[in-house]
Amino acid sequence: MVEHLGSLTGSPWIYAVVALSVLFDVFLPVLPSGVLVITAATAAAAGTGAATGQVPRGVPDLLVLTLCAATASVLGDLVAYRLAWRGGERLDRAIARSRRLTTAQERLGGALGRSSGGLLVIIARFAPAGRSVVSFAAGTAHRRVREFLPWSALAGVAWAAYSVALGWFGAHWLGAGWVSALVSLLALVGAGFVAAYVMRRPVPEPQEA
Predict the structure, then answer these.
(1) 119: burial class by Cβ within 10 Å (0-12, 13-18, 19+)?
(2) What DSSP state is assigned to residue 38?
(3) pLDDT tens column, 49-95
(4) What per-residue confidence (pLDDT) applies to 128?
């Protein structure tokens, strides 16, 4: 897998490709942003000589890759949040037709105002399309940006660091080939299923004193 990406993983353009993929997958969750991050991290691990495989000499820097993916994630969240905040009849109708968006909006109604409620934003970042649902729901519910942005930043950093770590350690343990890439992707998908299950559970209401 790393070999097939060739010059892309060995050039600075990999950061732009990763950033654009992560930025826009809030609108198009089918974009392979996680695959790109894992593959770039695998190339970085292979470039250290600790893993086998033919890769270009210039490999992505792990810290830059993580910051690039995390920053793009936060920017994408904010764009979706602001679009939903401004709303409009067409967007309101689209959200009303989506059971997932409607349910998320109801759950976020008071969740972001509590210290534990923002964890939903972090968990949703790992779930399939969860980032999109939460960002649009937070904007539609007119939650304040200071309630949403810190959690979005933590979610972006957590997701980016996890994805980079999967590619890095997978290459070190299994070699920089398709086997390590497949195992890393399965681990990312597994985290997504767990996150989706947690999101379906009701958020506990705070107990009155």
Answers:
(1) middle
(2) H
(3) 444 444 344 457 889 999 999 999 999 999 999 988 887 666 666 66
(4) 80
How far is residue 158's CA from residue 152's CA, in Å, rounded to a whole number? 10
Q: How far apart are CA 141 and CA 101, in angstroms?
A: 11
Structure-token pair, residue 207: 């107990």
Structure tokens at 194: 């767990």
| Nearest in space to 131 (alpha carbons), one of 77, 202, 186 | 77
Residue showing tokens 């968990």:
123
Two tokens, residue 156: 């972006």
Is-contact 154 115, C-beta < 8 A? no
pLDDT of residue 6: 47
> In the chain, which ranges are continuous DSSP H helix?
2-5, 13-24, 33-47, 62-86, 89-97, 99-111, 119-126, 130-140, 145-174, 178-200
* 176 DSSP 8-state letter: S
Token pair in block for residue 62: 């792990």
Q: Give the tens place of pLDDT for each residue, 6-58.
A: 456 556 788 898 999 999 998 887 777 888 898 888 877 776 544 444 434 44
Provide the token pair at 184: 């890393």
Q: Distance between CA atoms of 33 and 37, rounded to whole angstroms?
A: 6
DSSP label of 188: H
Contact between 26 and 80 (Cβ < 8 Å): yes
What is the chain's length? 209
* 68 close to 14: Cβ distance less than 8 angstroms: no
Residue 137: which pLDDT band, with cuts at 50, 70 and 90? Answer: confident
